[in-house]
Write a structure and sequence with these properties.
Mean pLDDT: 95
CATH class of the largest domain: Alpha Beta
Shape: globular
Number of strands: 19
Number of domains: 2
Number of helices: 16
CATH architecture of the largest domain: Alpha-Beta Complex
Helix content: 25-40%
CATH topology of the largest domain: Polyamine Oxidase, Chain A, domain 2
Largest sheet: 7 strands, mixed
Distance between the termini: 27 Å
Length: about 475
């Protein structure tokens, strides 16, 4: 059977694109190498617990957030429940412990009361967050500046800067390597729309979108790996893929192809070399973003009852005294890294039975941290790092380890294995400050990109937007072709 569209990859970008195109009566085939759909938007079971792989908080649906339109169009709200996070984040550093609200007015008032000498800078900062959709830089230098240089320009107190960067790990490993324009849009969306978690875990959303494709006449093939995008006369004509169950190889024709995959993988493995070179040329000025180390924690009682008072807490590593220390700390020893703890017992997460709880600890990670290790050495190092983090958590939340019933960890290696993201880069390309090439990344007219490696960047919202707009671009191209 031939299809209108083949989608390579079943992460949120591919699933959103597939759902939108299926709704528009396109015959869709989605190919995913993992045994479940979702990419980083997945869960896995451990005894009576459900472990959330990637979602800690997603910006919500208030004040015209475009995801509301997408989810309404795909009838997501009738099948998936979203729970509001009780606050934005808590930042803990030497001598300071402050919890930030999603309510921009409340957050601003609190920080002005704590740092009255920084009132002008705080008003400037929150105005940028509030008006991120219509903000226009006054000059070229400001347009291309980093988050770190922006904060240095408007604020002098380093404690305040670190507090404002308490959820920095959701975007980058270094504020001086992160575009302020990009950050303002992403961070502003949280302040404008709040934060939510998917009840039951992100797999609920991924499974729903996969089911939507199937119920609208599409096909979702799990445990199948794309090995080649077929191109003839400058157009994609289909995809060859291999079953990871029995090794059989198949070729399916299609009029359009969407890639929900890392662009380095598309360039180096899936496209003919000449076309792959064009992608490399179009992205030569970009760096791969960081990966993440995640430790999964299960407790025999709610963690909030043990003494953890916030949903999401950033514990800065010793020695992080200014934004300039964040980058070196990210790439330093695990035993001293800044980490973020998400405690799902503060919401109706659906991840643990009554009276028990699940949490996740996240730190920056890089595939290079695991170079040269055989499996045994890799497992030993993972456990050493886990023990170090558990010791540090015990100092912050005394008694925590007495109630810990299981822990496990995922690294950059894990992410690369299950998602095929190059270097385990969960956010795709780093959102660097400075001008960027405006050259079209896809070298083939009927090949579309729907992933964190696209212009929308990483995170759940970035992937969802990328998938939806890839579908819209495809539909627009089809309409134009039909009318000419």
């Amino acid at each position: 059977m031939d299809y209108d569209v083949i989608i390579i990859g079943g992460g949120l970008g591919g699933l959103t694109a597939g759902a939108k195109l299926s709704k528009e009566e396109k015959r869709v085939l989605l190919i995913e190498q993992h045994a479940i759909p979702g990419g980083c938007a997945t869960t896995f079971p451990h005894k009576e617990f459900r472990i959330e792989v990637g979602l800690h908080e997603m910006d919500g649906f208030k004040v015209g957030n475009f995801k509301q339109k997408i989810f309404a169009e795909l009838d997501v709200f009738s099948h998936v429940k979203f729970r509001e996070a009780p606050h934005f984040y808590r930042a803990v550093l030497a001598g300071r412990d402050i919890t930030i609200s999603h309510d921009i007015g409340v957050a601003k008032a609190l920080l002005i009361s704590e740092f009255p000498h920084e009132e002008p800078g705080l008003k400037t900062y929150f105005s940028r967050m509030e008006n991120f959709r219509k903000y226009r830089s006054e000059n070229e230098a400001e347009h291309h500046e980093s988050v770190g240089s922006y904060l240095d320009r408007i604020i002098t107190d380093n404690d305040l800067k670190l507090i404002l960067l308490g959820n920095m790990m959701a975007f980058s490993d270094d504020p001086y390597k992160l575009s302020m324009d990009y950050y303002a849009q992403a961070q502003g969306a949280y302040y404008q729309s709040g934060g939510v978690f998917i009840e039951g875990g992100s797999q609920v959303l991924s499974d729903y979108l996969a089911g939507f494709i199937i119920s609208h006449g599409g096909t979702v093939l799990l445990r199948h790996l794309a090995v080649e995008i077929l191109v003839d006369s400058g157009r994609c004509t289909g995809v060859s893929f291999r079953s990871l169950t029995d090794g059989s190889r198949h070729t399916i024709n299609a009029q359009q192809v969407i890639v929900n995959a890392s662009l380095p993988q598309v360039a180096n493995k899936l496209l003919p070399s000449a076309l792959g070179t064009r992608i490399q040329e179009a992205t030569h000025d970009r760096e791969h973003g960081p990966s993440l180390y995640t430790m999964y924690l299960c407790f025999d009682r709610p963690l909030r009852d043990i003494g953890n008072r916030c949903y999401c807490t950033c514990f800065y590593g010793a020695g992080v005294q200014s934004p300039k220390d964040i980058g070196p700390n990210s790439q330093g020893a695990f035993e001293n890294k800044t980490f973020v703890l998400t405690d799902y017992s503060h919401i109706e997460s659906g991840l643990a039975p009554e009276g028990k709880s699940v949490a996740a600890l996240v730190a920056e990670d890089y595939l290079s941290d695991w170079d040269g290790m055989n499996q045994a050495a890799y497992e030993r190092r993972k456990e050493e790092i886990a023990r170090s983090f558990l010791s540090r958590l015990e100092q912050r939340i005394p008694g925590l380890n007495r109630h810990l019933v299981w822990h496990g960890a995922a690294t950059a290696r894990t992410i690369e294995r299950y998602t095929l993201n190059t270097d385990g880069a969960v956010y795709g390309f780093a959102q660097l400050p400075g001008p960027r090439s405006k050259q079209r990344i896809s070298p083939v007219d009927n090949l579309f990109i729907a992933s964190a490696w696209d212009k929308f960047g990483g995170g759940f919202s970035g992937a969802i937007y990328s998938g939806y707009f890839a579908a819209m671009d495809l539909l627009r191209q089809v309409r134009i072709a039909r009318n000419t």
